[in-house]
Amino acid sequence: MIELNEESLCDKGCYCLRSKPNSTGYKNKNKWLKERFNEGLKYVKLIENNKPAGFIEYTPIETSSRVVYGDNYLVIHCLWVNKTGKGYASKLINSCIEDAKEQNKDGVIVITNPDTSWTPSKDIFIKNHFVEIDHAPYGFELLVYKFANSPDPYFPNDWKKRLTPFKNLTILRTQQCPFVDISTDNVIKGATKLDINVEIVDIKTREQLLNLSPTPYGVYAVVYKNKLISFHRLTVHFVMKRLKELA
Q: Domain N-acetyltransferase: where (predicted)?
């Protein structure tokens, strides 16, 4: 396992979208990572035979890109392995748990959703003794691995209210995921064909994230006429279909 830092990031880069190192999304992700390392973010790649086999990204809850409240926890943003059946996912999860113990954290948090591959799979965390303690609309689940009898983390409960400011077609995003750029382009292309203007809100701070994001995922959301269109990438065709449904 290799923990990236600013120097090794320039040499090895992040895991996702690595086949397109010149893409805007990949460049933005690496820039975003560089700005997060001094906040305590860890990005660990697992290498097999000199090739990337998986990775985990996690950070203190106080600076995380997920909409969850709590103190003194680590939050797993992403977990992915491309070779199953070798215990790699559990190895990465346990490395995070051990790091949390060394940092005297109260535990580790992850947000899952069975309806999309944009969040880590719930099953592997249940297997590693995480417990589901909260849920939110659109299928989101909050899982935690606690070390002590400390207060539980929790989701906000004003999800419907968060949609009310966005009557126009609006994309809320951060650069935590390199696929956000592709996702944004697909919405713009679909909306343009329907002569609908797109407004983009680039979320810069955790305070903005906690106040504006209409889902716990936090990284990306598309809202139109006060309804959530998506929190993950859609094809241009499906963007148009969803917009027509709300016309």
A: 1-164
